[in-house]
């Protein structure tokens, strides 16, 4: 049941051109949200162009964003503000890459840098730049005026950040991550994203931002080479269900089914 329905909100989804991101965009649009989404080249993102025709430019805003470049993220966030957006209620950091699948002896520095720039630094700088533009959360409450007075209560969360991680970034999950091998760069980039998520969760709680790491399932997309157990629409429906589920989300690592994943 949607305890905290996401409807009538402003939602940002990075990497909405295909796969899970595209299904998330469709899911949020179907719930009457205004959606801001990105691709490295939105003019080539046929599915997004079609959706914009269907919903109109006010409901679906498209902009180029290269999540692996901090300068591109800063430029994009400034553009979101300049377009008149006042507040982001939900941010889904979805853009990600797997990269090559080399044997251990063939891994290069570039394999790690690509994964880390896109999957780890990207989500961090998207959050940082939206905060710098004043679009995420609220200012912290004023300090109590009376010496010795109790601190004012933390404000209710007003922005929700979902970082799309992966169960293979878990170090202790007894199922998938304990049995699968290789994928050093991707796995390390998602484990690092998990640390960034829990740290942001603590740092941003006083300013009304909740941060959760989500595993979308093993999903048949380009990133997975078309392999997987579920399709992107099922994944997106599950992820949105978790975000709407109403339980406390801050600092947790949850699967698209709502199950807790160990770090
Ligand atoms: N599929 C799975 O089984 C699975 C499992 C666990 C986690 N995940 C995670 O789920 C997320 C979505 O993956 P997916 O399977 O839907 O992959 P996908 O179909 O390959 O889509 C990836 C999306 O990320 C965007 N993207 C890639 N590099 C980018 C960059 N440098 N800057 C900006 N956008 C970039 C792509 O947009 P453009 O190419 O248009 O720029 C595309 O929209 C990723 O974070 C992935 O790690 C997937």
UniProtKB/TrEMBL annotation:
<dbReference type="InterPro" id="IPR002347">
    <property type="entry name" value="SDR_fam"/>
</dbReference>
<dbReference type="Pfam" id="PF00106">
    <property type="entry name" value="adh_short"/>
</dbReference>
<dbReference type="InterPro" id="IPR052184">
    <property type="entry name" value="SDR_enzymes"/>
</dbReference>
<dbReference type="GO" id="GO:0016616">
    <property type="term" value="F:oxidoreductase activity, acting on the CH-OH group of donors, NAD or NADP as acceptor"/>
</dbReference>
<protein>
    <submittedName>
        <fullName>Uncharacterized protein</fullName>
    </submittedName>
</protein>
<comment type="similarity">
    <text>Belongs to the short-chain dehydrogenases/reductases (SDR) family.</text>
</comment>
<dbReference type="InterPro" id="IPR036291">
    <property type="entry name" value="NAD(P)-bd_dom_sf"/>
</dbReference>
